[in-house]
C-alpha cells in the first residue's frame, strides 16, 4: 500500500535533523498510519478490539468511581460520529438536483 496518505508523509524526515522531536512525531505518525492501513481487511477483529476497549474503559470508570465527565464527553463524541455516519452526504432539499413536481400542471423532469 502507498503511504502517501499518511500524516506528515509529504514532509521529508531528513529536513528535521536539527529537531529530533519533529522527526520522531513524523515517523510515529507514519508507523501508526501503516498499522491502520494494514488493519483495513480485518473488520471483525477491529470491532472486537473496539468492543473490548470500550468494556475495559467502562469497567475501569465503574470500579474507580470516576471519569464520569470524560465518559459523558466520549459518549457525546461517539453520538456525533454516529449521526454524521447516518446523515446523507448532501442535502436532498438543496435544490441543485432533480425535484418532484409541486403542482398538477408541472411536468416531471
What can you tell me about this protein's structure?
The chain is an all-alpha fold and 109 residues long. Helix content is 55%, strand content 0%. The protein contains 3 helices and no strands. It has helices spanning 20-38, 43-64, 68-86. It starts with 19 loop residues before the first helix and ends in a 23-residue tail after the last helix.
Gist of the model:
This protein is an all-alpha fold and 109 residues long. The chain contains three helices and no strands.
What is the string of SSEs from the N terminus onward? HHH
Main structural class: mainly alpha
- Beta content comes to under 5%
Q: How many domains, in number, for the residues?
A: 2
Helix content: 55-70%
| Helix count from the secondary structure assignment | 3
In total, how many beta strands?
0
Low-confidence stretches: none
State mean pLDDT (0 to 100 scale): 81
Ordered list of secondary-structure elements with their pairings:
Elements: H1 20-38, H2 43-64, H3 68-86
Question: What structural keywords apply?
Answer:
about 110 residues, mainly alpha, 2 domains, 3 helices, about 55% helix
Amino acid at each position: 500500500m502507498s503511504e502517501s496518505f499518511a500524516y506528515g508523509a509529504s514532509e521529508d524526515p531528513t529536513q528535521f535533523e536539527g529537531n529530533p522531536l519533529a522527526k520522531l512525531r513524523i515517523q510515529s505518525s507514519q508507523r501508526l498510519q501503516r498499522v491502520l492501513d494494514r488493519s483495513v481487511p480485518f473488520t471483525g477483529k477491529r470491532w472486537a478490539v473496539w468492543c473490548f476497549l470500550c468494556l475495559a474503559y467502562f469497567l475501569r470508570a465503574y470500579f474507580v468511581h470516576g471519569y464520569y465527565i470524560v465518559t459523558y464527553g466520549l459518549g457525546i463524541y461517539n453520538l456525533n460520529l454516529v449521526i454524521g455516519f447516518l446523515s446523507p452526504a448532501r442535502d436532498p432539499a438543496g435544490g441543485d438536483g432533480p425535484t418532484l413536481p409541486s403542482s398538477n400542471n408541472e411536468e416531471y423532469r
